C-alpha cells in the first residue's frame, strides 16, 4: 500500500481526528473479529490435523489404494486452504496496523482512507470465511420447511404465531429467500393456530435451524379489556427439505457373493448345480439370497434387486429417524422450555436463553432483524461441537 498524498492537515482539526478515531476503532474491531474467527476455525486443531495427514501421506503404501487415499487428499486440500486463507488475512491485518501508524505519524490522510477501505474488506472477508465454517453441517445448504404452532395462551398465542410469521417472512425477504405457505389454520377470534411454509434459498436450513424451539412473548394483551400483562408461547419447527429420490449406489467391493446348491423342489438340475446365490452387503451386514431360478446369473440379478430395495428402505428409515430426532428436540410449548423471550412489558428486551445474546430494540427484531441471534447461536453451536463450550 503506497503512502501517497502527504498533505499535512492540522492535528487539531476535528475532522481529521474523528477519522483517526473511527479507523482505530475499526482496526480494533477487525482484530477482535480475527481472534474470534481463530477460535471458530480452531486453527490450532486444523494445523495439528494437517500434520497428521501429511505424515500418513509419507507412508510407502499410501498411494497403493486410491479409494482410501482420495478422502485424505480432499481433507488435506480443504484444511490447507482454510489455514492459508486465515494466515493471509492475519498478515494483511498486521500490515494495516503498520500503515495506520505511519499515516498517523505523517498526517497522511490518503493512506488513512486506503487503510480504512482495506480494513472494511478484511472484515467482510473474514465474515465470509466464518460463514463457511459455521454452516458446514449436513443439510445446511438445503431449503427449509418451517412450521409454527400456537401453544399455551389461547387467542394470545395465536396472535403471537401471526407476529412470528410476519417476522420470519420479513427476515426471508431481507435474505432474498423465496417463501411459500403450504398450510394455514386461522384462529377462531384472531391470529393463526398453525402455519407451515417453505423457504427456498442457499443455506436456508443452515440459518433457520437456529430458530427451532419455543418462543415466549410477554406483553400487555390487546385482547384483555383490563390491560393485564400476558405470557404467550409458540413452537417453531425447522426441517431440511429432503429429496425424495434416494439414489442407492452399491460398490462391488462391498459385496461378498456366495453360490450354493439350491434346495427344495425343482428337479435334478436345481439340486446338482450351484445356481443359488447369497449376497452379503458388508458395510450394513444385510444378507439377501435367491434360489428360485435355474440360472445362477438370473438368481444373482434378482438378489441384487432385493438388496437395492432393502438399502433404499434402510436409507429412507434413516432419513425419517433424523427428522424425528429434530422434532423430538422440542419439548412442551410452555413455560420453562423457551429458547428466546420477547418482552414488551414491563421493559423491552429480546433475549436468547441459549447464547445470552440480547437486543433492546424489540420492534426491529419483530421486523426481521434476526442476524445477531442466528450468528450467536451458530458460533455457540460450533464451539460446543468442538467440545469447547463458552460464551458467545
Task: Describe the structure in your own words.
The model is unreliable at 1-12 and 388-392 (pLDDT under 50). The protein is α+β, with helices and mostly antiparallel strands and 392 residues long. The strands form 2 sheets. The chain has an 8-stranded mixed beta sheet, sandwiched between helices. A 3-stranded antiparallel beta sheet has the order 6-7-8, covered by helices on one side. Helix content is 49%, strand content 19%. Strand 2 (178-186) and strand 3 form a beta hairpin. It has helices at residues 14-41, 43-57, 66-106, 109-134, 155-174, 204-208, 267-272, 296-328, 362-366, 371-385; strands spanning 144-150, 178-186, 192-200, 213-220, 229-240, 255-260, 276-281, 286-290, 338-343, 349-352, 358-359. The protein folds into 3 domains: 14-134, Release factor (Methane Monooxygenase Hydroxylase, Chain G, domain 1, Up-down Bundle); 144-244 and 332-385, Alpha-Beta Plaits (2-Layer Sandwich), CATH 3.30.70; 252-323, Double Stranded RNA Binding Domain (2-Layer Sandwich), CATH 3.30.160.20. The two termini are 35 Å apart.
